[in-house]
Design brief:
There is one protein chain. The protein has 79 residues and is α/β, with parallel strands linked by helices. Helices cover 42% and strands 39% of the residues. The protein contains 2 helices and 4 strands, in the order E-E-H-E-H-E. It has a 4-stranded mixed β-sheet, covered by helices on one side. Strand 1 and strand 2 form a beta hairpin. The two termini are 18 Å apart.
Length: 79
């Protein structure tokens, strides 16, 4: 699993994930990346999973929880 964070504009930031999001190590690494995105303060967070083969349910759950937290601060997630 490899992650790349790209600043798209003053308001947007993107996480590009590559590989497989399975297992404890990948899940923890993914959560760390979400924290970095959150700390950026950008209004729009883009998650690009085009190059992800498989994702476990823990990662999917983290996306839903992250979306809820962003909505509370009037921020948006795009997948």
């Amino acid at each position: 699993m490899r992650f790349v964070i790209k600043e798209i504009s003053d308001h947007e930031i993107m996480l590009v994930a590559h590989g497989t999001l399975m297992g404890m190590e990948s899940t923890e690494s993914f959560e760390d990346q979400l924290k970095i995105l959150d700390e950026s303060g950008k209004k729009i967070i883009i998650l690009n999973f085009t190059d992800v083969d498989t994702m476990n349910s823990s990662c999917i759950g983290k996306i839903f929880r992250y979306q809820k937290n962003l909505a509370e601060t009037k921020r948006t997630i795009k997948i």
